[in-house]
Amino acid sequence: MKMKVKALIICLLAVSATVLASAGCSHEEQPAVTYSDSLTPHVSKIDMPFQIEKSETGRHVNDYVICFSDGTRFIAANMYNDETTAYEIIKPEVRTDSIYVIDYENPENYIEYKVNSREWIYSAVPYKDGIIYAQSAGMEETIYVSSQGDTYGYEWKLIYFDGREEKTIDRGYGLNSSATEIILVNGVPVYKCERIKGGKIETSINRITEFETAVIDSMEGFQTRDLLESDGEKYFINLIDEEQTKHVFAVGDEKKIIMEYETKEATSSSSMAGNYVVASYGGEIGKTSIAGISIDGAEEKRIAQTKRWWRMIGSGGQYCMTVDDGFNLYYIDIEEEKVGQVLIPDEMKYLLVDSTSVEGEKEYISSIKSFYPAGKNKFLTEINMEEFYIIDFN
Predict the structure, then answer these.
(1) Contact criterion met (CB below 8 Å) for 173 and 195
(2) Which of 10, 90, 207, 298 is the most exposed place for a label (fewest CB within 10 A)?
């Protein structure tokens, strides 16, 4: 079958709980670069317990929101949100109907928590006989004005739900709609959140023990730039200051911060793989590199690159998954200083957009891909916000 493929180019990616990218077209030729051998992982599809509903225009009415994943299971929320058309914004009641705990091996035996929330739920972990989840709601009043004059206001809550009763564990106000996230570190719930104190922003990292919270560390003047990630034993967080010039990479466990690394280099994406923080440096194509910063602070590696890398995710092993500007899938092995393509089936690579092009060929674009850790060198992979696969390098 002949195939005409158009690449989607990622514009600057800002974090959101749905972790969506803005994509535009580009005809810029990228310089040639030598990559390591490609890898062909084992790929298996996962059926979700609820379906995506679509409007007459084909847009999603609801979405899969991945709230948590580890080596045996993941949590997905069924979230409804605004729909934007060329003429108007259709505003259904923003709500989250249910949260599902899904086992990779037996996805049909899922656990459903009917939260029936009027808010957006985007992060959750299993805890005791239920779940702890984070939800966020916009506020009409201004609670913070940035140095650029932008105003913000979100109220967040951290709630325990056992299927019958809710218990609020923590709450506060922050700049970003998805700033509060919760993960498991050595079985302990750890969460980050933003707070406004004395007109200043602060990001804190906290743990939960028997529904009581304790601060692990806090960073005044910094807000979250990327997702809070966990490989089960430690977590990674990328923070940025109010002037948007200084990044702090931090790694910690349920007791303390293990490593902090500050940089002023432009960063398109970052994550943690094995015993390294991995970051894509450089905002200009052809003047980029991948950095590997050892968590013990003893080593920093640099791999010269001609591309920018996005959506980096590690999963406790040596591999870090990432995409380039065209959503083409690559792996990074920072220990071996390797970057190479990941070979996946065509149905995961491309999305049919026009079956009657001028040349009479089917026309495709690169599919949008997002990743979540699913065990050592395994990744839960979301394709076009509609389908899910396990990519396994073991």
Answers:
(1) yes
(2) 298
Averaged pLDDT for residues 188-206: 89
Contact in structure between 180 and 195 (CB atoms under 8 Å): no
Strand 310-314 vs strand 319-323: parallel, antiparallel, or unpaired? antiparallel
- Tens digit of pLDDT for each residue in 288-347? 899 999 998 888 999 988 888 999 999 999 999 999 999 999 999 999 999 999 999 999
Q: For residues 192 and 205, is the Cβ–Cβ distance under 8 A?
A: yes
75 touches 102 (CB < 8 A): yes
Residue with tokens 């071996």: 336
**How far is the CA of 139 from the CAs of 2, 96, 119, in angstroms?**
51, 18, 12
Rounded to an integer, what distance in angstroms lies between the CA atom of residue 61 and that of residue 115? 18
Q: Quick check: 335 and 354 in contact, CB under 8 A?
A: no
Whole-prediction pTM value?
A: 0.85
Which helix (H) or strand (E) segment is 91 a member of?
none
Q: CA 151 to CA 144: how far, in whole Å?
A: 6
Q: CA 152 to CA 260: how far, in whole Å? A: 27
Q: Are 232 and 184 in contact (CB under 8 A)?
A: yes
The region of weakest confidence among 1-5, 131-135, 260-264, 291-295 is: 1-5
**Position 260 confidence tier, pLDDT thresholds 50, 70, 90:** very high
Which pairing describes strands 329-333 and 166-174: parallel, antiparallel, or unpaired? unpaired
DSSP class of residue 237 equals: E
DSSP-derived secondary structure letter, 5: E
**What tokens appear for 291 in the block?**
């950095």
Read off the tokens for 112.
């459903």
Cβ atoms of 156 and 193 within 8 Å: the answer is: yes
